[in-house]
Design goal:
Elements lengths: L1 H23 L9 H9 L4 H15 L9 H17 L1 H9 L4 H4 L1 H5 L8 H14 L2 H15 L2 H6 L3 H9 L3 H4 L1 H9 L12
Length: 199
C-alpha cells in the first residue's frame, strides 16, 4: 500500500486541483493553500466527495480566505491579536515588542486550517470541532498554540527578536500540540460568540 501511496495521492490530488481551477471560484481559481486541506479530505473520501467538501469548507468556513489581497485573513489576524491580548497578555506584549504581526505566523494556520501544523490525532479532534463550530475553532487552537509556545517567561527571554519568536512559533513544543492538551485548553479559554465578531 505504501508503495502506491504517492501514486494514489498524486492521481486523486490532481483531480481535485483541476476541478478547483475550473469550478470552485473562477475569480480565485485554485489557491495553493487548499492543497493540504484537499489532501486531508482525500484521506477520508473519494475525489469527487473531497472536491465538494472542499467547496463547502471554502464557501462556508473559510469564505474570503483565498481571495486576492487576503483581506479576510488580515482581518482575522487582527481579531486573533485582540483575543490574544485578552487571553495571554504577556505573549501579546512580547509579539508587539518584537513587531511579530499575525500575518507572519498565523497565515498557514488559517489558510491550511491547521492541517500542516497539528499531529494527526489532534488534527482529527480539532477538525471535528471545526466542522461543527466553524472558524472560531481555528482561533481557539491558535490561541492555545501561542500561549503554550510563548507562555513561559524563559522561552520569551530566549526569543529575543522577530526571527527567534517566529522560529518558536514554527516549531511549537509537541506537548502543546497533543490532542488532550489542545482540547483541554481550548475549552478553558472562556471566549463567547461575541468575542469573535471583531474584538
Amino acid at each position: 500500500m505504501l508503495n502506491k501511496w504517492e501514486e494514489f495521492m498524486s492521481k486523486n490530488y490532481k483531480k481535485v486541483r483541476e476541478r478547483c481551477r475550473k469550478v470552485l471560484n473562477p475569480k480565485v481559481g485554485y489557491f495553493q493553500a487548499q492543497a493540504p486541506v484537499a489532501a486531508f479530505l482525500l484521506m477520508h473520501m473519494p475525489a469527487v466527495q473531497a472536491f465538494w467538501c472542499l467547496v463547502s469548507i471554502s464557501d462556508k468556513y473559510l469564505s474570503g480566505y483565498y481571495n486576492p489581497g487576503l483581506e479576510v485573513l488580515q482581518r482575522d489576524g487582527d481579531i486573533l491579536h485582540a483575543l490574544l491580548r485578552r487571553t495571554a497578555p504577556a505573549v501579546h506584549r512580547h509579539l508587539v515588542k518584537h513587531k511579530v504581526e499575525p500575518v507572519l505566523y498565523a497565515t498557514e494556520w488559517f489558510l491550511c486550517a491547521l492541517t500542516r501544523t497539528l499531529p494527526w490525532d489532534s488534527l482529527l479532534r480539532v477538525w471535528d470541532c471545526f466542522l461543527c463550530e466553524g472558524v472560531k475553532v481555528l482561533f481557539k487552537a491558535a490561541l492555545v498554540i501561542l500561549a503554550g509556545a510563548l507562555g513561559p517567561a524563559k522561552v520569551r527571554k530566549r526569543a529575543c527578536g522577530l526571527c527567534e519568536t517566529l522560529e518558536v512559533l514554527r516549531h511549537p513544543p509537541e506537548a502543546i500540540l497533543a490532542e488532550d492538551y489542545l482540547m483541554y485548553h481550548m475549552t478553558r479559554l472562556g471566549l463567547t460568540e461575541e468575542d469573535f465578531d471583531g474584538s
